[in-house]
Amino acid sequence: MTEAGERALPLPAASDQDAGVTAAKPSLPPLPVLWRRVPAGRVLAFAPHPDDEVAGPGGVLAMHAAQGDAVRVVVATDGTSGDPDGRHAPGAFAALRRRESQEGLRLLGVHDVRFWGFPDGHVLSETDLQNAAALAARELAEHRPDVVYLPWEHDGHPDHHRLHVIVTRALAAAGFRGLALGYEVWNAMVPDVIVETTAVFAQKQAAMLTHQSQIAYTQYDHCLGGLSAYRSLVHLRGRGYGEAFRRVSGALPAALAEAT
Ligand SMILES: [Zn+2]
User: Fold this and answer.
1) How far, in Å, from the CA of 56 to the mean position of ligand 1?
2) Low-confidence residues of the chain: pLDDT under 50
3) What is the pLDDT of residue 4?
4) How many domains does the chain have?
5) Based on C-alpha coordinates, what's the Rg of the chain?
6) What pLDDT score does 2 carry?
7) Is position 55 within any domain?
8) For residues 51 and 115, what is the distance between their CA atoms, to the nearest angstrom?
9) 75 CA to centre of ligand 1 in angstroms
10) Range of the domain at 111
């Protein structure tokens, strides 16, 4: 209905409408499976910046740690782009972000974290990508994970995208035969798996809050907490929390899938 005095918007020509309809051929995405547990095994999680390890897979890392899995986190960049107003002394800021990451992971029960210290926001050459992929392959060879977490392919932030490329190259080069799952931070995905994280959500939020240097700029706890709540929509009737993942390689363990 159009209010009196307002002019109706002109409708597009019939030919435009036809073009829109015929151009769109959407396929129905499969329903994601629901896991209330995570697969047992050795775990290696790659994070682009200090805080993504919490923001993305923080809940599932806490679940892995709680069931006794050997969890290692690799943080690729030094996070020094996370202070755009220059509130911190440049020399001390990378160390602060490392401490925040260590403290956040401690709250998730994870004590094994490595920092590559790559410059934040750096545009990588092909040689840089090759060197970084070799470094990631070395991490795979050393830790021998059964499950790998990495940013999903369209997470969108340039550093997240670069790390997706680096880790997938390393997985291919290493002939990785385990399960690799992409996690979401910057862009929400169409998931293959929803993991219920209700029991560990408070831990994840507490871990997010250790990243005060970042919360001071953006309320990541609010945004990512909202994303976890949203992930309860499909299977959990909007109650509790979840984290979403896309399969990058390997088979999803059928025994974990719950009938919903
Ligand atoms: Zn990030």
Assistant:
1) 9
2) 1-12, 14
3) 39
4) 1
5) 21
6) 35
7) yes
8) 12
9) 10
10) 32-251
| Cα-to-centroid distance, 242 and ligand 1 (Å) | 20
Alpha-carbon span 20 to 66, nearest angstrom:
50
CATH of the domain at 137: 3.40.50.10320
Q: What is the pLDDT of residue 89?
A: 87
Q: How confident is the model over 1-19, as pLDDT tens digits?
A: 434 344 444 444 545 555 5
Q: What is the pLDDT of residue 77?
A: 93
Ligand 1 centroid – CA 14 distance (Å): 44
pLDDT attached to residue 5: 40
The DSSP code sequence of 178-191 is: SEEEEE-SSS----
- Establish if 18 belongs to a structural domain: no
42 φ, ψ (degrees, to nearest 5):
-80, 140
126 CA to centre of ligand 1 in angstroms = 21
The alpha carbon of 91 and the centre of ligand 1 are apart by a number of angstroms equal to: 20
Where does 109-185 have alpha helices with state H? 126-143, 158-174
How many A from CA of 52 to the centre of ligand 1? 5
Contact 200, 170 (CB under 8 A): no
Spatial separation of the C-alpha atoms in residues 42 and 31, rounded to whole Å:
27
Pairing of strands 242-249, 179-183: antiparallel
The confidence score (pLDDT) of residue 22 equals: 61
Give the model's pLDDT for residue 143. Answer: 98
How many whole angstroms from 9 Cα to the centroid of ligand 1?
A: 41
The model carries a pTM of 0.90
Helix axes 158-174, 126-143, angle to 10 degrees: 60
Structure confidence at residue 102 (pLDDT): 98
Q: What is the C-alpha separation between 87 and 206, in angstroms, rounded?
A: 23
- The answer to the question of residue 63 being in a domain is yes
